[in-house]
C-alpha cells in the first residue's frame, strides 16, 4: 500500500517536454497544472518530496480538512507549492520564508494563483525566532492551520523553529507537518516538539522515510 500511494504522490510531478530558457517543474494538484521555478543552488528553493506528501493529503482529504476560507500560514514555504495548493483549495494563505527566497517564492505563487483562487495569497518574510511579535502579533494574528514541509533537517535553527511554532499556534490552531527522517539530531526535535504539542501521525511512507503529522497545543487535540 505504501508503494502504491507513493507512486500516486510522485506521479503528480511532471517535466516539460521541451527545455525552455527558464527551467521549471510541473505538478498536478487541486485540478490545476502548477509550474514551479526552482533554484538548485539553495535548499529552500527546491521542491522536496515532503511537500508533495502534504499537498497530496490536502487534496485527498478536503472534506475532513476543509480549507475554504481558512487562514493558513506556511513556514519555510520555499518554492511555494504547498501554499499554492492550499490557496487553490480555498484558503487565505500567508506563505513565508527567508528574505533571500521571497523573490522566487512570490513569482511562483503569483503565476500559479492569479485569478484562480478565492483568496489571493500573500508572501511575507519570516526568519524563525526573529521579531515574531513585531511581524506576527499574537493579539491580531490567528491562523487556523500552520503548514510545514521538510523544515527539520541539519540546520542550526531548530530552537528558533520550535519558538516560531509556539508563537504562531493558538489553542485551536492545527499544525500539519511533513517530515523526512534523516539524522538523530533532527529526530530529537520531535521529542522536544511534543513538550508543547500533542502529536499524531496521520500518514507514514516508509519507502520515502517521510511521516505526516497533525499537532495541536497540549491537551487540545481533537478526535
TrEMBL record:
Q: Name one GO biological process term.
A: methylation
Q: Gene3D superfamilies of this UniProt entry?
A: Vaccinia Virus protein VP39
> By its UniProt entry, which InterPro entries does this protein fall under?
Methyltransf_16, SAM-dependent_MTases_sf
One of the record's GO molecular function terms: methyltransferase activity
- The organism's superkingdom is given as Eukaryota
Q: Which Pfam families match?
A: Methyltransf_16
Task: Report TM segments.
Answer: none
Which keywords label this protein? Methyltransferase, S-adenosyl-L-methionine, Transferase
The name this protein carries in UniProt is MT21E methyltransferase
The gene that this protein is the product of is: Mettl21e
Amino acid at each position: 500500500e505504501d508503494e502504491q500511494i507513493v507512486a500516486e504522490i510522485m506521479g503528480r510531478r511532471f517535466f516539460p517536454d521541451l527545455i525552455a530558457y527558464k527551467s521549471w517543474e510541473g505538478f498536478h494538484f487541486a485540478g490545476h497544472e502548477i509550474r514551479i521555478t526552482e533554484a538548485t543552488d539553495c535548499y529552500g528553493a527546491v521542491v522536496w518530496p515532503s511537500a508533495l506528501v502534504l499537498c497530496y493529503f490536502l487534496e485527498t482529504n478536503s472534506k475532513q480538512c476543509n480549507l475554504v476560507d481558512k487562514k493558513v500560514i506556511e513556514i519555510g514555504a520555499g518554492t511555494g507549492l504547498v501554499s499554492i495548493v492550499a490557496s487553490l483549495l480555498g484558503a487565505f494563505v500567508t506563505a513565508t520564508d527567508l528574505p533571500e527566497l521571497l523573490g522566487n517564492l512570490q513569482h511562483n505563487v503569483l503565476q500559479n494563483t492569479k485569478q484562480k483562487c478565492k483568496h489571493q495569497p500573500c508572501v511575507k518574510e519570516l526568519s524563525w525566532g526573529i521579531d515574531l511579535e513585531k511581524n506576527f502579533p499574537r493579539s491580531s494574528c490567528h491562523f487556523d492551520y500552520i503548514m510545514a514541509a521538510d523544515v527539520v533537517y541539519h540546520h542550526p535553527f531548530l530552537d528558533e523553529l520550535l519558538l516560531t511554532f509556539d508563537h504562531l499556534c493558538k489553542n485551536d490552531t492545527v499544525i500539519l507537518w511533513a517530515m523526512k527522517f534523516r539524522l538523530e539530531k533532527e529526530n530529537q526535535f520531535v521529542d522536544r516538539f511534543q513538550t508543547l504539542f500533542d502529536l499524531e501521525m496521520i500518514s507514514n511512507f516508509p519507502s520515502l522515510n517521510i511521516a505526516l503529522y497533525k499537532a495541536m497545543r497540549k491537551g487540545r487535540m481533537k478526535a
